[in-house]
Write a structure and sequence with these properties.
Helix content: 40-55%
Organism: Janthinobacterium aestuarii
Order of helices and strands: HHHEEHHHHHHEEHEEHHHHHHHHH
Keywords: Cell membrane, Heme, Iron, Membrane, Metal-binding, Repeat, Signal
Protein name: C-type cytochrome
Number of helices: 19
InterPro entries: Cyt_c-like_dom, Cytochrome_c-type_DH, Membr-bd_ADH_cyt_c
Shape: globular
Strand content: under 5%
Subcellular location: Cell membrane
Length: about 425
């Protein structure tokens, strides 16, 4: 019996090795010859400017800029279940950046996830989305990055353990989860919808945050935009599964993506704040409108019939009725810390002081966003002009924050109670 088991294990191992070798050979790519960096004047100014706007849509700086470091010089650590992976330098430095990369090498990295040296890139770099970007847009991005000031900055060593750090294994991952494709127009939809989908599923890579992943780090098939935990925050569902009291209509989506706030849903915070204000801030209104058209369709907003006035009035009525039954600690904390700003007196929700009964963070299936904002607040750099909320990390204990969040969930939404809140607060406090 032992001999049979041992033989079976050896056979399985051999099959795995053969499969890995076959995948590597299938995805093997040669190194591409280095170039001398072109002069900045070699790129037309209008193409460089277009690349700047596209880089914002892709939020490239968020990953490729370390805190306190030079823009696009890399070094920012991306935490994954497999270890920390550090974003690389994408300035035109000859030694540590992409200064010796040809446009063909840049395009291959974006489309296939392969470096100039032929090594497979980790899929934390979302080439699974960037492969949809057009040739013209990739050329504009290349022109923009190659005209940035070169910065000598080598990325720290990744902490991915052996054998997961072996680059050839990424070929096997690609065989399982990556299907290169170009963007195909949907003739049944309008121009705005197609433009929005092209941006959302390509360069903006929205699904990379808003889609749950499997044990190997790939987006779950058939679960696009169903919401996912990321970096101690929660990227909510963008489909009809979203639990917000009111649907995300085209106008609401446009307001949120353009300004960072909407009176009927709340304020962009955490990573989404950077996407809106630092990333898409330079994008033309037409692109923001296209994204809102596309995601309104994804959310099925037109099919969801809701009497907005009734929902708003009922929510404000709940907010005005603070319950102190049974000495509720959460209600007491709300009165002491929140009511002065969030109690509605005129019957109209306001974007600058969100109505919590309408707030997406309160109705979400994951309490992470509400906890983060209670702990750390919103700085003047994160939200809309005029929005500033203090954090209570220093004045409230984990139990206090948990009870306050539980009270808001119970009194301001019709969703099931969150569980293990105190542990969630501790994680958020440690992860900030």
């Amino acid at each position: 019996m032992l001999k049979k088991i041992f033989t079976g294990l050896l056979l399985s191992l051999a099959l795995l090795i053969v499969a890995a070798l076959a995948a590597y050979l299938y995805y093997w790519r040669p190194a591409l010859a280095p170039i001398d960096p072109p002069a900045a004047t070699a790129f037309p100014p209008q193409v460089v400017e277009r690349g700047r706007i596209l880089a914002g849509m892709g939020n490239c700086a968020a990953c490729h800029t370390a805190k306190g470091g030079a823009e696009y010089a890399g070094g920012h650590g991306l935490a994954t279940p497999f270890g920390t992976i550090y974003a690389t330098n994408i300035t035109p430095d000859r030694q540590t950046g992409i200064g010796r990369w040809s446009q063909a090498a840049f395009q291959r990295a974006m489309r296939e996830g392969v470096g100039r040296d032929g090594a497979h890139l980790y899929p934390v770099f979302p080439y699974t989305h960037f492969n949809l970007v057009s040739d013209d847009d990739l050329a504009a991005l290349y022109a923009y990055f190659m005209t940035r000031p070169p910065v000598y900055a080598a990325a720290p060593a990744n902490s991915v353990p052996f054998p997961l750090n072996l680059r050839p294994l990424q070929a096997g991952w690609k065989l399982l989860f990556f299907k290169p494709a170009s963007y195909q127009l949907n003739p049944a939809q309008g121009l705005d919808w197609n433009r929005g989908r092209y941006l959302a599923e390509g360069l903006a890579h929205c699904a990379a945050c808003h889609t749950p992943r499997n044990a190997l780090g790939a987006e779950l098939a058939g679960s696009s935009y169903l919401g996912a935990a990321i970096d101690h925050w929660y990227a909510p569902a963008l489909t009809s599964a979203n639990t917000a009291p009111l649907p995300w209509t085209q106008d609401e989506l446009y307001a949120f993506l353009r300004t960072g706030a909407t009176s009927l849903h709340g304020v962009a915070a955490g990573p989404m704040s950077a996407v809106v204000h630092e990333g898409m801030g330079a994008s033309p209104d037409s692109d923001i409108r296209a994204l809102s058209v596309y995601f309104a369709g994804v959310a099925g907003a037109e099919q969801r019939q809701v009497d907005t006035d009734t929902v708003v009035k009922a929510g404000i009525k709940r907010s005005q009725r603070v319950s102190l039954v049974d000495n509720d600690r959460g209600a007491s904390l709300y009165v002491a810390a929140c009511a002065s700003c969030h109690s509605n007196s005129d019957g109209k929700p306001a974007a600058l002081r969100p109505e919590l009964s309408l707030n997406s963070a309160v109705s979400a299936p994951d309490p992470a966003n509400l906890i983060q904002v209670i702990l750390h607040g919103l700085s003047k750099d994160e939200a809309m002009p005029g929005v500033l909320m203090p954090g209570f990390a220093a004045s409230l204990t984990d139990n206090d924050v948990a009870q306050l969040a539980a009270y808001l969930r119970r009194s301001r939404s019709h969703q099931p109670a969150w569980t293990n809140l105190e542990a969630a607060v501790a994680r958020a406090r440690a992860g900030k």
